[in-house]
Specification:
The complex is a heterodimer of chains A (about 290) and B (about 425). By secondary structure, chain A is mainly α. Helix content of chain A is about 70%, strand content about 5%. Chain A is built from eleven helices and two strands; from the N terminus they run ααααββααααααα. In chain A, helix 1 packs across helix 9, helix 3 packs antiparallel against helix 8 and helix 5 crosses helix 6. The longest helix of chain A has about 35 residues. Chain B has two domains: about 200 residues, Rossmann fold (3-Layer(aba) Sandwich); about 160 residues, Rossmann fold (3-Layer(aba) Sandwich), CATH 3.40.50.2300. Chain B has 14 helices and 15 strands. Chain B has a five-stranded parallel beta sheet with strand order 2-1-3-4-5, sandwiched between helices. The longest helix of chain B has 20 residues. Classes of the chains: A mainly alpha (about 290), B alpha/beta (about 425).
Amino acid sequence: MQIVFLLEQVVNGLVLGGYYLLIALGLSLIFSVGGVVNLAHGAFYAIGAYVSIEIGKLLGFTWGVALSPVVVAVLGILFERFILRRFYQSDPILSLLVTFGLAMVAEQLIRIIWGSAPIPTSMPALMKGPVIIGEFLFSKYRLLLLAVVAVVLVGIWFLLHKTSFGRVVRAGIQQPDMVAALGIRLQPYMTAIIILGVGMAALGGALFAPIAIVHPAMGAEIITVAFVVVVIGGLGSFWGVVISALLVGVVRGITIHFVPAAGEASMYVLMFLVLLFLPRGLLGERIEKFD
Amino acid sequence: MKKKEHLQEQKSGSISRRSAIKLGAGLAAGSAFGFPAIVQAQSDAIKIGHLTPMTGFLGALGGWAVMGIQMAAEEINAAGGVMGRKLEVNSEDSINPDTAATKAQRILERDGAEFLMGEISSASALAISQVAARNKRLFMALGPRSDTLRGKSCNRYMFCTDIPNTVMVNAVGNALLRDNMVRGKKFHTLTADYIFGHDLLRAAKQFFDANDATLIGDELVATDVTDFSPYLLKIRQSKPDVVCLNLAGNQVTNFVKQYAEYGLPFPTVGFNLNTADAWAAGEGNLSGTWPTVWYHTLSNPRSFEFVASFWKKYGKPPENHAWIEYIALKLVAQAMEETKSTDSEKLIAHFEKGAKFDILKNREAYFRSWDHQLIQEGFPFTIKAKGKAVDQWDLLELGPAVPGADQSLEVIYPTKQQNPCTLA
């Protein structure tokens, strides 16, 4: 029975990992391509949740989730055009500082617009409740969430690995100067990466809003986990981030099964161990411009 | 040429567009971060330092606390102040115990505050109480509920106004006993992993032991947990009769939402819930029996008056932290008027003498001299049936006050034998 219980935690952890992935993949892409440590990523996640609720009030839950990433992506374009663009060639510490400041401004703006009290949210009754398969119990909503994540993931993988857009982005990560020498401007590609990255963060916020507290500081809460996932996975690797997100979810679940109080600490221990043996993360590539 | 134009611009006293944008952005950012208000207060204003969490897992509750205490200050000042002097309450984010202690020292030493009020976190309150004791200044701990603050860690300079964990357990416990949900039942608890939660778990265990209930699962949950799914699976695996929550702040809302999401069949009860947690849970997610110290639908004319003023001012009803901060400043102001002093020692002596205060409930409250806690009624509540709520705020069905009108208020509080604190 103990094994079944443990397996249930493993499977549940994989589902949660899928959700972490939505936030971490964008963060990783933005850093890999632009060299920008985007500490404001969590802010887009929070804005995504709030915007989805507002749209949901008018058009219903599904439209809220579908349109919120689009609205946030537009904000992402402005973010890239007026702020990030100035920092691609600069010391990463500058982009880190500016995005850190922006995250705080965004949190306060949320407080000003929506107030500091959490916003009540719930999901449509149809999506509530469990699905029991054999001994395993799943949340109906999270299975749906997993399906959405899988579709997004396949889409991103396809875009990065099977299109000319993806070839330029991947080349841009490793050899931006060579890409420039070939007469390709990386600028529009970076804009596209930001749209994808913050759009995914917003989708994560919108999807998590019905099952977690929606409050102004929610972005600051998720950003730490997202960074841990990126660091464990390694920069520049799509699959590294995927494996890392799933691993963090599973390790957390198993730890909570045995030592509940250590659940949140488990991902940091995992990060420590991975970096001890693999300083670039699980599948991190050597990126010359960061060396 | 450019330089010349620039010089001309400077000479004419105007600023360039770029500078204006920079200045505007700077000001916007500054105001967003809430630079401490520089108030040109009268030099004889009575300064009160107010610390409360405005960020972190208790941040949402702190927002209500600030609204409550500031409204009380405005009302007192509009009515002529205290002894003819205005009150100046400066609210700051206490953040965590270390920062809270540092700020408390600065507020007393440099800002010239007469005494300190506020806090919701029991851990931060403990840190502030030590600073208050060192400086021999009063600290009114308004929101923390840990028994330890009124027990082992009590001190002469700290007075606690919220109901303690033991009272919350007793308030809900009586309702559960009445509904046959305790004797012979198996409980699985989730507990916030810090001083408040540990303390609440201790009180809960005593209650289970005394009433023939069994604890079959007992998980400590870090305060920053947002995903409860692994805990929910453990609860399902242990098959309890009742799931019992000793959680705090955002934890409660997250748990309640996810419990509804997973649709587990076991009834839930909780020994701690703030109205804000219930409001944030979303329609149809909250169930079970819980305790509260006050709710805005409480049938009391003075309470209704307060609710109406608050609603008018902020566009929403007061949460229980707004209420407790409001009545606390009012009772401190009353004590200052009655003693004609802002001196901590005189105020302490006044409280210890058993001065009575109207706290917008049906019975007056007083501080117990030997453990410095406000003795008052508590209430159990259940969740209103669907369709019965008047508005989005009207979620809870208040049960009768505990203890009953014919009993002493102290029957739900720890006795002298149970409580290690002996201040008087």
